[in-house]
Design a protein that fits this description.
The protein is an all-alpha fold. It is built from eight helices and no strands. The longest helix has about 45 residues.
Amino acid sequence: MNSDLSPKALLEEKSLLEIYKKSRRIPFNSFNFWSTIIVVVMVAIQYCLLDISITEKLKMVREFSVIAVGITTTVLGFLLAGFTIFATISQPDMLVAMSQHREQKSGLSFLKYNFFIFMRVFIYYMAYAVFCVFTLIFAIKGGVIHYLVNISPISHEIIEWLLGFSYVALYGGMYFLLMQLKSFIYNVYHSVMTAIRWKASS
């Protein structure tokens, strides 16, 4: 059995980026993946069918960014609470045992497999919140992006593409986060049941 209990193995990941790279070994829930693809395609089609001016589209994107930042940061607080519950009720001896067994598909120990699932959701929410903040900062008339785009001879087309990308990313991304939240809730439940089962059998 390969254990992750050595100091080198436990502290091998030095940043959230390294954690995310390793967490990508863990496969997505197929329903979450395909339903997100369908929603993203539908949102993209909807944007193409919108019969409103660029100014109205920009206003729509900015207003949704404000709403999304509030939702994302609030939910992130609840997620941290859920993770705290998992970390608190987990028995130390159970975590040690988990570190000594490997999950076959990812090659990760069950210790890191479980923790990476939680951390990956945190990373998605943080990345989405940062995108929303950047949209609010730079998607303004006279801002850096506005200035750079206006230099181009095809500025109108670039603005349309940027707005389209932002629209799809914001609305499709919100659905993706909801699917991650669904899985997160189940993982908290499953972790609690596993801890209870471990306590009962020890």
